Amino acid sequence: MISVAAKVNKKRRNAVQSVVCPLIFGVALIAAWQTGLLHTLLNTDEYVLPYPTRIATIMSENSDKIMANVWASVEVAVLGLIFGSILGYLIAIFATVFPKYGSGGLTIVSAFNAIPIVALAPVIINWTKDVSSEAEVRSMVAKVIVVTVVSMASMSVNAYRGLTELPPFSDDLMKTYAAGRLTEFFKLRLPNSVPYIFTALRVSVPGSVISALVSEYFAEYITGVGRQIRENILIAQYSTAWAYIVTACIIGIVMYAVLMLIEAVALRKRR
Amino acid sequence: MKIIKKILNSKAFVTLVWIAVIIVIWEICATRVAEVKRTPENVLPHLGGIVDSLTSDRKINGSQSALEMVLENAGATLSRAAIGYVIGIASGFVLALLMSLSGIIEKIAFPYLMLIQLIPILGMAPIINAITGDIAISRIVIAAILTFYPVAANTLAGFKSVRREAHELMYSYAANKFQLYTKTMIPACIPYFFTGLKISAPMAITASILVDTLQGGIGLGCLLSQSLKGAMTRYVFWDIVVFSAVIGILSFYLMGLIETLLCPYKRIGKKG
User: Fold this and answer.
1) Closest to B120 (Cβ–Cβ): which among A42, A123, A252?
2) Which of B108, B120, B124 shows the shortest C-beta gap to A22?
C-alpha cells in the first residue's frame, strides 16, 4: 500500500514539475527581456527589440487594424488548407485504386514539397494575373493556391498510408464477407485513414500559416500579418512589426490548439 | 523480353512516365500562353527557352552569362544555408541528448520545442535581419532555427524508441551512462536523426532564399526579386525557380544518399 501511495505521489510531483519548470523558464525569459538583459546578450537595442510591455501596448492600441490583417491571413491559410487537404486525400485515393502509377505519382507530389515556397509564390502570382481585374481578389486566389500546394503533399502521403496500411487480417475479413471494393473502401479503408489525416494536419496546419505569411510577401495587394511585418520593418517601425510577429505566433498556436480540439473530439472513441 | 518487362514495371520507370506527363502538360500550356500573351516568358515560357537561357553565353549584366550569374549567387546563398544547417543539426542533436539525459531539461525544453514548430519563423525573417544587421548572419541564424526543431524532435523520438529489452541488457552488462549512449541509444536514434535531416534540408534552403529577398546584395533571392521587377531578362527568374526547385529536391535525396553510405542498416535492408 505504501508503495502505491508513493507511486501516486511521484506521479503527481512529475505532473507538477512538467508545468512549473517550463513556466519558470518562460517567466525568466520575459523578465530578462523586460530588464534589458536579453538586449545585452543579443547585442541589440530596445528600438529593434522593444520591451514586452511596449509591444503589448501597441497591440491593444491597434487591435482593430491587427484583427483585419489577422482575418486576411487566416482566411488564406484555412481556405488553402481545406482545398489542399481535400486534393491531397483525392490523390491518395487515386494512388490506392491504381497502386502502380499512383504511388509513383505520390513520389512526384512529395517532391513538390521540396520546392521552396519562395520559388512557388511568384510563379503562381504570375499565373493568376488574369483571374480578376481587382488586385485584392487576384492576390487572394494566388495566396490560396500557394497554401493549397504546400498542404497537399503531407495529406496525400499520410492519407495513402492510412488507406493502405490496414490492420492485419482486416482485408481477409472483408473477403470473407464478399465485400465489394466500394464497401471495403467505406467500411475499412476510410475509417482506418482518419488518424492518419490528423497526423498530416499536424504538419500542414503550422505549414499553412507559414506559407500564407510568406506568399503575402510577394502578393500584389498589401494585406495580411506577414506583409505587415515586412512593411513596418521597411519603414523602420520595429515596435509595430513586433506586434505583428507576436500576432503571427498567436495565430499559429491558436490554429494548432483548434486542431487538437477537433482531433480530441473526432478520435475520442478510438482512445 | 523479361528485362523489358522488368524495366516497364520498375519504380523508376513509373516516375519517369510521370515526369514526362508533367513536361507534356507544361509544353501544351506554354504553347497556349505563347499564342495569347504578348510576353509569354512572364507567365509560362517553353522549357526549351529556359534551357537555352542557361546554356547560352550571352552576357546579361555586362560580364556574366545567366548560368554564371545564377551559380555565383547560389554559392552565396547555399553556403550560408549549409552553415546554418550544420549549426542547427549540431544544436538540435545536443538538445535532444541533454533532454534524454536529464528529466528536468526535458520538462523545461519540450513545451518550447513544440512552440517553435508553431511559430512562423519565416515571418520573423525581417526582424532577425534587423537584429543581426547583417544579411549573411541572418541567413545562417534562420536556417539554423528551422533545422533545429525537426532534428531535435526526431532525435528525441529516436532515443525514446529504444526498447526496454535493450535497456535491460545494458543494465545486466553493468554498462555505464557513456557506454549506454554510445552502444545503444545513439545507434538507435540515427534513422530518426536522418528523418529530421531530410525534412529540414529543403527548409534551410527556402529560408536562405527568402532572407535574400529582404535586402539587396548578392544571393539567389536578390536576383529573383530584381528579375521580377524587370531589371534583367525574365528568364533569369525562371532559371532560379528551376534551380531552387532542383536543389530543394536534391538536398532531400542527398541526405538519403548520405544515410545509405554511412549507415549499415540501410544497405543490409536493401539486400534482404
Assistant:
1) A252
2) B108
| Yes or no, beta carbons of A116 and B251 under 8 Å apart | no
What is the rounded distance in angstroms from the CA atom of residue B255 to the CA atom of residue A201?
Answer: 25
Q: Hey, is the C-beta of A6 within 8 angstroms of any chain B C-beta?
A: no
Q: What is the dihedral of CA A239, A240, A245, A248, to 10 degrees?
A: 150
* Extents of the domains making up chain B: 2-44, 62-271
Name the CATH architecture for the domain at A52-270.
Orthogonal Bundle (1.10)
C-alpha of A129 from chain center: 27
- In angstroms, rounded to a whole number, what is the distance separating the alpha carbons of residues B130 and B148? 21
Q: Does B119 touch chain A (CB under 8 A)?
A: yes
Select from B118, B121, B241 the Cβ nearest to the Cβ of A253.
Answer: B118
Q: Which residues of B touch A100 (CB under 8 A)?
A: 9, 14
Nearest CA in chain B to A204: B118
Sign of the C-alpha dihedral, residues B251, B253, B255, B261? negative
Task: List CB contacts of A50: < 8 A, sequence separation 6 or more.
Answer: A238, A239, A242
Q: Strand runs (DSSP E) across chain A, as ranges?
A: none
Contact state of A122 with B15 under an 8 Å Cβ cutoff? no
Q: Is B44 at the interface with chain A, CB within 8 A?
A: yes
Q: What is the pLDDT of residues A152-163, one digit of tens each?
A: 888 888 899 888
CB contact under 8 A, B126 and A233: yes
Do A196 and A203 touch, CB atoms closer than 8 A?
Answer: no
Q: What is the pLDDT along chain B (272 residues), one digit of tens a residue?
A: 677 777 777 777 888 888 888 889 888 888 888 887 777 777 778 887 888 777 776 666 656 777 777 888 888 888 888 999 999 999 999 999 998 888 788 888 888 887 777 777 777 777 787 777 777 788 888 888 888 888 988 898 888 888 888 888 888 888 888 888 888 888 888 888 988 888 888 888 888 887 777 766 777 878 877 777 776 777 888 888 888 888 888 888 888 888 888 877 767 655 43
The CATH fold of domain B62-271: MetI-like fold (1.10.3720)
CB contact under 8 A, A249 and B119: yes
SS3 content of chain A, % helix, strand, coil (to 5): 85, 0, 15
CB A124 within 8 A of CB A146: yes
Place of cell 490496414: A166
- Whether A119 and B245 have beta carbons less than 8 Å apart is answered as yes
Do residues B239 and B231 touch, judged by C-beta distance below 8 A?
no
The residue of chain B nearest to residue A245, with distances taken between CA atoms, is B124
CA distance B143 to B241: 19
Strand intervals (E) in B58-176: none
Longest Cα separation, chain A: 76
Q: Is the sign of the CA dihedral A192, A193, A194, A200 positive or negative? A: positive
The verdict on a CB contact (< 8 Å) between A127 and B44 is: yes
